[in-house]
TrEMBL record:
Location in or out of the cell: Membrane
Regions crossing the membrane: 6-25, 72-94, 106-127, 147-168, 219-243, 292-314, 364-383
Topology of the protein relative to the lipid bilayer: Multi-pass membrane protein
Pfam families tied to this protein: Mem_trans (PF03547)
Keyword Kinase tagged: yes
Name by which UniProt lists this protein: Dual specificity kinase 1
Native organism: Mycena venus
Principal place of residence: membrane
Keyword Nucleotide-binding in record: no
Amino acid sequence: MASDLFEGIISSAKASISVILVLAYGYGLRKLNFISQEGENDITRLCAKFFLPALLFTEIGPLTTASNLRNYWPIIPLSLFFQGVAFAVASLSAMAGMPQHYVPMFIFNNVTSLPLLLINALAATGGLDPLVTGGRTLESALKIGRLYILINALVGNLARFALGPYLMKAQTPKVWIQGDAEEDPLLPDSGNIALPPDEQPKFKPKHRIIASLKRAKDWIVSAMNPPLMGGILAVCFGIIPWFHTELFGAGVLSPISDSINNVGKLFSAMQMMILGAHLYSKKGSNVQPLLLAWLFTYRFILAPALSISVVYFIRTTWPNFLDNDPMLDFVISISNTGPSALTLSAVAVMADVPSDVEGQVSRIISFCYAVSPFIAFPMAVAMRMVRQTGVGR
């Protein structure tokens, strides 16, 4: 366990240092006016509305196949369950006085880049050797581990951009909080239209249905932010075999997905740099240490304790629910662990929060990555749990 812990600390420290350095580059460029205020705003919008949708399209599309969804479906309800628990904890905390923009930070952690980097680093140092069973090679075990991580990321990304902007501000879309039916513009104005009393009930339910449908349409349109649209389009094209082969494989449409992929790769570095620029330009109010400590406690202690306990319970009481694969157990155990997602900075932009709140979001995310080496401790516990259950042997 000591070697697992040491390898995890080294790997996660390298990951966090690389993130912090890029943040520092963005901070320095903004301070030296290499990035102007207008440029900062333009890059922020580009990241949220162009680079990020492109990234989600090329990440989610290749994974969305009928066989993947059929074979690895348990990852989906477990991911939603962990997010649901985090939502309950964050909502109770918000009721106790925690600012609303903290809520998504409890729910949505980094489910893509950091887990991928960690298992790659563990594989390079031999840390994944105990998970290589069933006649697999290390490379094949690592490949299936990446697939598990990306399927979990598919769920996390879609949920983050469908709900994140609303959770950041705690505002129900206006279409759901309009006036009563008597004030609805689709209903007849009794002052202008004189209907016999016995005919009014015939029309009122009809108009109420029309009004409800209009409200539903308005809500759907307002929820369709660019990243969510990118993810939904990826699912639509990925699930259709012809498009999946021709677009995400080596078919005639592959140049389109290649170009989108090249654009999407710009997101991570640009987002981290602009996050650093926000640290300089959007000072925001001070981050309260107690709230930050509570966020860290949940993300690095309570959340992994939940996921590890759930996997252990399922494996020991309902073993057929999950495939007999130690890599699957390990990935699910660590999927709920780690710092808040970098993309929550883009979510804050989509939520149109005040500038001081946006600056505070940037600082909280930066603090999260500064302490991300602590992820090594739950990773070591997860590895120990997988070994004890003896799955795959």
